[in-house]
Design goal:
Blueprint lengths: L1 E2 L2 E2 L4 E3 L8 H9 L5 E7 H5 L3 H5 L10 E6 L3 H14 L3 E6 L4 H4 L11 H14 L4 E8 L5 H12 L4 E8 L10 H10 L4 E4 L5 H11 L3 E4 L8 H10 L9 H19 L1 H11 L10 H7 L6 H17 L6
Parallel strand pairs: 3-10, 4-5, 5-6, 6-7, 7-8, 8-9, 9-10
Antiparallel strand pairs: 1-2
Length: 327
């Protein structure tokens, strides 16, 4: 699988998830076999105006490459300048967001609002394409109209504007994550353009990835919410693609990854900030385990690495010693 000049090891791509796909999470996904990891959605205005918090989102490590960085905005000149900053930071792919339907993004004319303005979207694609040499991709929804006409219009101007790949999340902007993703739209978009099309939406199991690829003909599959607390999903997909069995992680693997995630987060953000994040993030990895609610409650006031290690160890020992394992 290739996106422009970038070759991926496999067809799995981690979706950009606000507040989730930071550097520590991306490193977990990559270590678990993800073909391409994506940053959180980053404000083009924040990059151009040198916001420290925004620029922090560009931090990366060689171990996670190739890396796609997603930006959002509505001004072609600002988007082009921000894209150049992203390329200079070492990103391998630049992605433009045309799918976010959060009100504060829409009111600026960004995200899914651009689905209604193919002319403006085209100007952005052309300006960004001129500003960078790395591959350029676009992530979009079905649009606002049930007919999907907006998605087809954007796909056409994207291809004409030098975009190297399109990710299609076939839900309307008004749906959020509700309802069912219409995979037939992915197939239709794939048949309408010659550039790679990445499918996204309603991927819950590794088997779903193979089904989406078979039903839509998409070139790769983007996985979002299903990967939260479950980075093993990427290696499971690869196993299935190679004709092998999909193996679930055992209890020790779950806790090893939790410890790794904690350690990397502290390295990246410092103990105090990382531990505040872990108050909710560590709970991702115990989903499906018996008494997981007890663990999630215990970490709500987490403030130190020592405390985190103690609570993780206590819960692990409890499950092992009392035979309370139930995944």
């Amino acid at each position: 699988m290739k996106i422009g000049s970038v070759v991926l090891d496999n067809i799995t791509i981690l979706a950009p998830l606000a507040g989730i796909t930071n550097l520590p999470f991306r490193l977990l996904a990559k270590a678990s076999g993800c073909g391409l990891v994506c940053s959180e959605m980053i404000s083009a205005n924040g990059l151009v105006h040198r916001s420290p918090k925004t620029h922090e989102l560009l931090e990366s490590r060689i171990e996670e490459k190739p890396l796609s960085v997603q930006i959002f905005g509505s001004d072609p000149y600002i988007m082009a300048e921000a894209a150049a900053i992203v390329e200079a930071s070492g990103a391998d792919i630049l992605d433009i967001n045309l799918g976010c339907a959060v009100k504060k993004v829409l009111k600026t004319g960004s995200g899914a609002a651009l689905m209604k303005a193919p002319g403006k979207a085209e100007k952005i694609f052309l300006a960004v394409r001129k500003a960078i040499s790395i591959p350029l991709t676009v992530k979009m929804r079905a649009g606002w109209d049930k007919s999907g006409s907006e998605a087809f219009a954007i796909a056409k101007v994207a291809e004409a504007g030098g975009v190297d790949g399109i990710t299609v999340h076939p839900r309307l902007a008004t749906q959020g994550f509700g309802g069912k993703a219409d995979w037939s739209l992915i197939a239709a978009i794939k048949n309408s353009v010659s550039i790679p099309v990445i499918g996204n939406g309603d991927i819950v199991t590794p088997e779903n990835v193979l089904t989406m690829k078979k039903e839509t003909g998409c070139d790769a599959v983007m996985i979002g919410r299903a990967a939260i607390g479950n980075p093993w999903l990427f290696s499971q997909v690869t196993s299935l693609m190679n004709g092998n069995e999909s193996v679930s992680p055992d209890l020790s693997e779950r806790f090893d990854v939790m410890m790794k995630y904690l350690n990397i987060s502290i390295e990246c953000f410092g103990e105090k900030r990382a531990c505040r994040m872990m108050r909710s993030h560590l709970g991702w990895f115990v989903k499906g385990l018996r008494y997981s609610s007890r663990f999630r409650e215990s970490i709500k006031g987490l403030s130190t690495e020592r405390e985190a290690l103690s609570l993780i160890g206590e819960f692990k020992n409890f499950l092992f010693d009392s035979n309370n394992i139930d995944i």
